[in-house]
Amino acid sequence: MTSETAGTAVPAASSEGIGASVARREDRRFLLGKGRYTDDVRLPEQSWAVFVRSPHAHAAIRSLDAARALAAPGVLAVLTGDDVAADGLGGIPCGWQIKNKDGSNMVEPPHPALAQGKVRHAGDPVAMVVAKTRVQAREAAKLVDVDYQPLPAVAHLRAAATAGASGGPVPLVWDEAPGNVCFDWHLGDAAAVDAAFAAADRVVAIDVVNNRVAPNAIEPRAANGHYDPAEDRYTLYTTSQNPHLTRLLLAAFTLKVPEHKLRVVAPDVGGGFGSKIFHYAEELLVLWASRRVGRPVKWTAERSESFLSDAHGRDHVSHAELALDAGGKFLALRVRTLANLGAYLSTFAPAIPTYLYATLLSGPYAIPAIYAEVKALFTNTVPVDAVRGAGRPEASYLLERLVDKAARETGADRVELRRRNFIRPDQFPYQTAVALQYDTGDYDATLELALAAIDYPHLAERKAASRAKGKLRGFGISTYLEACGIAPSALVGALGARAGLYEAATVRVHPTGSVSVFTGSHSHGQGHETTFAQLVADRLGVPLASVEVVHGDTDRIPFGMGTYGSRSAAVGGSAIVKAMDKIVDKGKKIAAHLLEASVADVEFEGGKFRVAGTDREKAFGEVAFAAYVPHNYPIETVEPGLEDSAFYDPKNFTFPAGCHAVEVEVDPETGVVEVAGVAIADDVGVVINPMIVDGQAHGGLAHGIGQALFEECVYDDAGQLLSGSFMTYCMPRAADLPMFHVGNHATPCTHNPLGIKGVGEVGAIGVPPAVINAVLDALEPLGVADIDMPATPERVWRAITAASGGGK
To answer: What's the CATH code, domain 502-648?
Structure first.
């Protein structure tokens, strides 16, 4: 897989600072096999845990007999929900509360770490077997006898919301949630939308399904807990995107011990995609079990177990209507969505189909009136939460499919229809009809870049060439917008968030002038050890090799909120910049004394403190040495040392945007879809490292193509996961992906010190609707007007056959 640059607009690069394509420093240890992951951590007297998980989607637990398992070789303990309750452990908390339309709170049922009384999805943990080896634990787990009374289950959204097939009542996941409704929420001005629809010349409607997906990071989730009785202290090694949040939830809600008695370490993490944001039961249970058995307890998920225990993503069913005037201008948008939350509320689940979805329904378009209703339902399935993009892919998919349909039904050119309705550069800051205010953007620029990169003017010739070899070529486009760096804390708190969404950093300058950066952000593949070091090299003028970046250990980092929502550089990087500003301010005071000048006359640039208008200067290293060796130093007014910390709470979201263009070839005989070309142009704000940004785009594109063509979590009506392994859940492979043409056009963010917007999720957000729009463009001559993701060969073949009158 390679990329070509369609166009760039980034600051001039120094050799190592902002704008430089520096190879990732962390890759050397990974390529040499020297990475240290949670599963690599082996502690003295290490023991293993294996979980007994429910084979039923919904059942009462009549009894549980662990006698045979306890007698098995090497077994140290078999722990159950009754033990959890007896020891007073807390349930897994939800981090976001949503209000219903009437102002009442959502239904928030308990989420015990081990099932108590009932199981509510296949894979729900029932017991925990701890043994001296993993093999012993696995064999003993087979000996735990659980007597289940199966109960009716509900696995699909429409089934959860309606009467059963026999006409009887729908099975309830929770008795306290009538109709399986967790919340019934809305956003926007319904009256204004109704008025706009009444005056519209044309209304276009669409029904879309956003398919359920599994995150599938290369590294499965793992946890290794150790209780030290001598210090009365717990240490957890875990595959987490935000170790401080995990520690906070353990201290306040689940393990219930003071934070100073808890250390959480997230070492190298092999991918997350959102699934490792959350606090999972296994993290609590290995710590608790360690105290009970007197040994460290490790658990590492097997891949099939991950499908049954990691939070899934997406799973929306929506109906949308777009009102247009006679000239094709968008007047109003009305959306109704059913969102699947699974059996329990995961950490941030309620925010995904609400404030991270409905607030993005304006996209890059000037739509005067929008009204969205979201009804979230419980089902007997794995909990649903954030997966790469988290709400924004769902919004972009719905809107871009609808705009394409509007172009077809009105006879408009789909490119021109988009261009006609873009928010213009002179309209910024732009207040949308769904709460968000965009600060800056240039949507025409990214549109033109992408069209040029994919050679749009010669599309007709390529279509003819495909027809000549019996294939159908289609072109699809998506002009997307997303929101990153969720903020500010005061706003999201008012919207139901139960955590602050700032970031923290400490910058420590050592006596020789080398620098250690301690960041609350966490890297699980994004390249923070390189990009954050580039920020330091750029601001302080020190060599990249002299910068250390530390993350992922609550004993070393003052605090932090982790990595998700493409917030690392925009929020975490801004905290580092604020801390460096304090370092420079103090350095000016030291330099002023050394140079016998006024502080106001001292400038800092390129690693030099200089008296303005003169050639008198001190290198950064000289000032650092003076700070720690205060022989000639203003110690009465400036304390020794050169270290400072900062917290950064953003003033607003950032708003990456762009255009993704896709061409596909469809074989009408087999339904096989081949992605023939992808060209994207993104506006991710200022780019720190173009090579890393391109890499993030590549990964996001693969993720988005995967959802559009291959990936889907499929449940049967009884709640059994039919796609619970890579034999049945299809991931994209290298051969499925074409050359990517990747480009950037930057309009800097106006409210963070770096001008960064974020890049990690853009591919997963913008490309799925472009792929499906391309498939439908290819199939339009055959009469196919609609198809759901994933557009698998079977699904495409069936659509072609149905359109030709050949069957369902």
So the answer is: 3.30.365.10
* pLDDT at residue 271, as a whole number: 95
- CATH class for the region spanning 316-487+652-803: alpha beta
**327-340: average pLDDT:** 98
pLDDT for 397 beyond 60: yes
Mean pLDDT (whole number) for 115-143: 98
Q: Residue 161 — very low, low, confident or very high, per pLDDT cuts 50/70/90? A: confident
**SS3 of residue 317 by DSSP:** strand
pLDDT over threshold 60, residue 498: yes
What is the pLDDT at residue 482? 96
Domain 44-151+230-269+276-309 has CATH 3.90.1170.50: yes
* Dihedral angle of Cα 688, 694, 700, 701, to the nearest 10 degrees: 150
Half-sphere exposure of 782 (CA within 13 A, CB side): 29
| Residue whose token pair is 């997307």 | 480
Phi-psi category of 227—alpha, beta or left, where left has phi over 0 and alpha has psi -120 to 50? Answer: beta
User: Reduced to 3 DSSP states, what percent helix, strand and coil does the chain have, rounded to the nearest 5?
Assistant: 30, 25, 45
Within 8 A by CB and 6+ apart from 197, the residues are 203, 321, 323, 331, 332, 334
Q: Position of tokens 């026999």?
A: 166
Lowest mean pLDDT among 122-126, 277-281, 628-632, 702-706: 628-632
For the cut 80, the answer to whether the pLDDT of residue 4 exceeds it is no
54 Cβ contact list (under 8 Å, min separation 6) = 115, 119, 121, 122, 123, 124, 125, 126, 146, 148
pTM: 0.96
Q: Which residues pair with 427 in a beta bridge?
A: none
Cβ–Cβ < 8 Å for 779, 471: no
> Would you call 104 exposed, middle or buried from its count of C-beta atoms within 10 A (0-12, 13-18, 19+)?
exposed
Portions of the chain given CATH number 3.30.365.10:
316-487+652-803, 502-648
Q: Rounded CA gap, 362 and 360, in Å?
A: 6
Side-chain half-sphere exposure of 19, counting CA atoms within 13 A: 14
Please give the radius of gyration of the chain, using alpha carbons only, rounded to the nearest integer. Answer: 28
Q: Mean pLDDT of all residues in the chain? A: 95
d(CA 192, CA 435): 15
Segment holding 496, helix H or strand E: none
What lies within 8 Å, CB to CB, of 256 at 6+ separation is 88, 89, 90
